[in-house]
Amino acid sequence: MPAKRREHPIARIVRPRKKTRVTNTHRNRPMSSSAPQNIDNEYFVGHTNVLMENTNIIKETLQEELDRSERSCRAYELELEKLPRGSVTVRVRGTKAYCYLKYREGSRIFTKYVGSAEAVESDLRKKVERRKEIEAVIKRLKRERAFIRKALRHS
What we know:
By secondary structure, the protein is of the alpha+beta class. The chain contains two helices and three strands; from the N terminus they run αβββα. It has one domain (38-154). Strands 1-2-3 form a three-stranded antiparallel beta sheet, with helices on one face.
């Protein structure tokens, strides 16, 4: 069974409708000349103004959301710089356990001694887990920002 495609709540943007001819609904022909012609123009002029106001409100809201997303992404990136990257490994040598932090720089893997496992391991693991959570949030924010930019371009 194929996975359902989720639609973002901002995806439905109201756009002004184009002016169309008034037709007889059951025959799809133009109405008789006895119908007043000025009703059509008045309706669409007022209707377009309302839609344009709604579109401006939506654009402003999208722009505010884009700014908020960029600010929060910057804040998360600052927090990310303070946290250790990589993974925690524990090595047992004789009767003692030692804690190491493994991380990658380019194509090289580095192993850094952090301390004895009893003193450091749980705190370091929490920090590494927090880093992974923040990386996931930043990834989601970047996808949202791309979507909002696309919606702003097309509206």
